[in-house]
Amino acid sequence: MTINIQKFKGDLDAETLKKLSQCPELFIDVEATGLKLKVRDRLSLVSISTGSNDVFIVQPSKEYQCKNLVSLLTNEKIGKCGHYLRFDYTALSHFLKCEIKGELTCTKIMSKIARGYASQHGLKELIAEFANTKIKKDLGSSTDWSKDIELLTPTQLTYCANDVIFLKKIKEELLKILIREGRENLYKQTIKWLPVRVQLDLAGYSDTDLFSHS
To answer: Which of 51, 153, 162, 165 has its CA 20 to 30 A from that of 131?
Structure first.
């Protein structure tokens, strides 16, 4: 597959915003300097795909003044799909100071509810099963994603692209299983709770199971 990758420093341009605003759903992923978003780490890159072979990678300004990107994320007419969307939603809402709107889809949650036959629900495993493609995920924890986007190698940019380019196919296949197994409604009820889970994460309850006995 040939992937068309476009890079943006600071924010999306007006032409790209107009193009993406016409899409019914976008597939998104973020890269950060680490996993402790409120304690130490920060949002570095945002990858967006329309579900075809195009990927738009944005390196937000240091002040996170990205009005075009925010306009896209807060457009309630556009669905947003990601893998482990909990992290992406948290990073985007915290650093860009916006509420992600539109129908939300998380392929990790879909996988956990649909694929009772599997013990692993990572993106690498889902791409292998549903797209018959093997990818490497080691760059995620060994790359400085906050360096100038122009200094990122083609391999690193492809890594970012792989995190979104397969999501449409994965979503379609997981939805088939959810429907077949009669679990689609269970998933729909679960994903509605995602914004609340993010609020709890940002409030300091990320490691707390509020439904546990203890």
So the answer is: 153
Distance of CA 166 to the CA centre of its chain: 12
For the chain, the domains span 4-202
Phi-psi region of 29 (alpha: psi -120 to 50; beta: other; left: phi over 0): beta
Q: How many CB atoms lie within 10 A of CB 134?
A: 8
- pLDDT tens-digit map of 106-144: 999 999 999 999 999 999 999 999 999 988 776 656 689
- Cα angle 147, 93, 95; round to 5: 35
d(CA 210, CA 127) in angstroms, rounded, equals 32
Q: How far apart are CA 102 and CA 189, in angstroms?
A: 15
Q: How crowded is the C-beta side of 7, counted as CA atoms within 13 Å?
A: 13
For residue 89, give Cα distances in angstroms to 27, 41, 98: 12, 15, 10
**CA-closest candidate to residue 168, choices 57, 100, 79:** 79
The yes or no reply on domain 4-202 and CATH 3.40.50.2300 is no
Q: What is the pLDDT of residues 86-113, one digit of tens each?
A: 999 999 999 999 999 999 999 999 999 9
pTM: 0.94
